[in-house]
Write a structure and sequence with these properties.
The radius of gyration is 22 Å and the shape is rod-shaped. Helices cover 67% and strands 0% of the residues. By secondary structure, the chain is mainly alpha-helical. The chain has a domain of 25 residues.
């Protein structure tokens, strides 16, 4: 690896935008799972 100096300090980056994006992604995943499970339950009951 190259030896070079950097002004970067680990843990100093602003990650608010990434946190908001991840929270939105998790919300859509959660609703997707709920819809899929509800659909599977409906199909299982309709078949009975």
């Amino acid at each position: 690896m190259a030896d070079h100096k950097s002004d970067f300090t680990p843990g100093s980056m602003d990650i608010r935008e990434q946190e908001k994006t991840f929270a939105g992604f998790m919300k859509y995943v959660q609703w997707g799972v709920i819809i899929i499970v509800a659909l599977l339950v409906f199909l299982a009951l309709a078949r009975a």
